[in-house]
Amino acid sequence: MTHARLTPLVASLPASVPFVGPETQERDRGRPFRARLGANENGFGPAPSAIAAMQAAAADVWKYGDAQNHDLRAALAAHHRVSPDNIMVGEGIDGLLGYLARMTVAPGDAVVTSAGAYPTLNYHVRGFGGALHMVPFHDDREDPEALIGRAAQVGAKLVYLSNPDNPMGTWHEAATVQAIIDAVPEGTLVVLDEAYIEFAPDGTAPRIDPTDERVIRFRTFSKAYGLAGARVGYAIAAAPLIKAFDKIRNHFGMSRISQAGALAALADAAWLTHVQAQVAQARTRIGEIAAGNGLRVLPSATNFVTIDCGRDGAFARAVLDGLVRHDVFVRMPGVAPLDRCIRVSAGPEAELDVFAQELPKALATAG
Amino acid sequence: MTHARLTPLVASLPASVPFVGPETQERDRGRPFRARLGANENGFGPAPSAIAAMQAAAADVWKYGDAQNHDLRAALAAHHRVSPDNIMVGEGIDGLLGYLARMTVAPGDAVVTSAGAYPTLNYHVRGFGGALHMVPFHDDREDPEALIGRAAQVGAKLVYLSNPDNPMGTWHEAATVQAIIDAVPEGTLVVLDEAYIEFAPDGTAPRIDPTDERVIRFRTFSKAYGLAGARVGYAIAAAPLIKAFDKIRNHFGMSRISQAGALAALADAAWLTHVQAQVAQARTRIGEIAAGNGLRVLPSATNFVTIDCGRDGAFARAVLDGLVRHDVFVRMPGVAPLDRCIRVSAGPEAELDVFAQELPKALATAG
């Protein structure tokens, strides 16, 4: 009876979750993780100034948040030297990707991404009836030429590129990304996911041109700013595309506390520098742990390190299962040959100690 | 160029906002309101225990919230004596209404509501290409027989009823609402919005039958629990319909801080009782202020009072404009004959003092 009420499209969708969260796993396991290194959360935390701002805002939470996200958009616009009309704030990049898919993808419309790239993009595209076309990673990086070539071939509405990418942590230089934007077919929009950009070397992000209607880029407060649980992402794009979000978004969807936290976090450049240094140290440490176990890591421009377990997907899966069994939450890529790797978030020393302790056992059991 | 990338449906939509928020008005006016009585926010605030829980959760906000909202759903299930499988938590009722429209409304599908009822429902229905059919209020209340009659006539996918209703604050007894559910045509889902139910007399909400697939009801932490800015609403329905939300929702969309706040608020029954008493007093006070100006108020089962300004919509609009000009944020119904009224939130004494001071001037100017 219920299904008779669903649209044919929605009735056809699986009740899927792009990711199983660590709390779900903890409930299934019956005990907590000792190291939470699987979701690329920022264990170094948000700025104390951001925590204080959220605590102060809690008393005012009887008021709805500002539906225009005015103050945060103004601060982001100043930060990126664009106009507030080029900024859309939303409930994480996940929420904004859902809006974008709804705005651009009608049933049957083509979207191009990389096999093994962000599952939540795929979830939203399928959710609106889009046809996903995937090209493989090349040398553990997203493949610009293949993405553009396929976009032209299938007449894609969207072509998705994460830079730095998830789940491998690799990246392309700004010039390469700009070349993708410059080569994009008429009618195709480049979806440039820069969730990890604050961890990347200078010269990774192409210059922001707020008049360029060929690209929309996504940034987040979930990673470098340590506010994953506050759900604040934003898009930067040409004003007409940004304005189109107002046609469909949940205008009063942002938490007032999260708005305050993001505003304070953005202003605290010193804490960001601190986090970047901590993450760089943690990446080095993960590399040392891997090397101590005879494993190679991929270069990373993110707050995680992808460890090549040196064999096939079944082996890496066994290593991961061993880690999870011993209370270390990590994840791994979903498709071959990326799935020979496991992905470890660059977390605090104590959690990496647990990982260092458990990795040899997991490898021994898997082997 | 951008519009070429939008779907035909989205391109056809206006960039509309169901409500203009008070912050937007304050920016346009160039000065703040002295009394914030327009959005039916709860000026008595959330429970101190909920504020404390949110402040404590702020330090943990580097973690994503639990995608299953497990703890909150479990607590709500216990509260309502249903299973967690009957509860879906989302980003306010607004967010959940958007999900429901997406799940059930294909282009051209009919939805029935009352003219002048919640604009955000209409926004979401139109946003998915639905065809809205409106029946008038009858004696300042939503009209059950007309709603059901029209639903049968047009083969509606959804029929929306708010009880108590917004914007008039009136209500039907549980038996009347149950009769609507019992009379709903095959294939139509009753969308029962009970956002204000905690302010209504006992006997307003029909018994929750978690097996009944003919109705989905919506509740919120934004009103009686004082957490509007935290964005926590929930749906109660039969398990198959609840499960269908997992096909399309933003799984990690809930703020971790909001989850903690809602959980604490639900547990604090004493604060809810306190708020209910404060709101009842404030309603009485608004009635006295109105009477002192020769105006009649409608009976209210909500945290606002609808004042009949006694003439036509243009007059009520002039009264409202006068109040806004003198820094009192209030709103009014959007269609005749409801628009002979203004709607005033049951706020704290100091804000009602400002309202009491400004209403006579606004009436004099309007007259």
TrEMBL record, chains A, B:
Annotated keywords: Aminotransferase, Pyridoxal phosphate, Transferase
Matching PROSITE patterns: AA_TRANSFER_CLASS_2
Pathway the protein acts in: Amino-acid biosynthesis
Family annotation (InterPro entries): Aminotrans_II_pyridoxalP_BS, Aminotransferase_I/II_large, HistidinolP_aminotransfase, PyrdxlP-dep_Trfase, PyrdxlP-dep_Trfase_major, PyrdxlP-dep_Trfase_small
Domain Aminotransferase class I/classII large, residue spans: 37-358
Cofactor requirement: pyridoxal 5'-phosphate
GO molecular function: pyridoxal phosphate binding; transaminase activity
Pfam family, one: Aminotran_1_2
Entry annotated with the keyword Transferase: yes
Oxidoreductase listed as a keyword: no
SUPFAM superfamilies: PLP-dependent transferases (SSF53383)
Protein family membership: Belongs to the class-II pyridoxal-phosphate-dependent aminotransferase family. Histidinol-phosphate aminotransferase subfamily.
Protein's name according to its UniProt entry: Histidinol-phosphate aminotransferase
UniProt source species: Rhodovulum imhoffii
Phylogenetic classification of the source organism: Bacteria, Pseudomonadati, Pseudomonadota, Alphaproteobacteria, Rhodobacterales
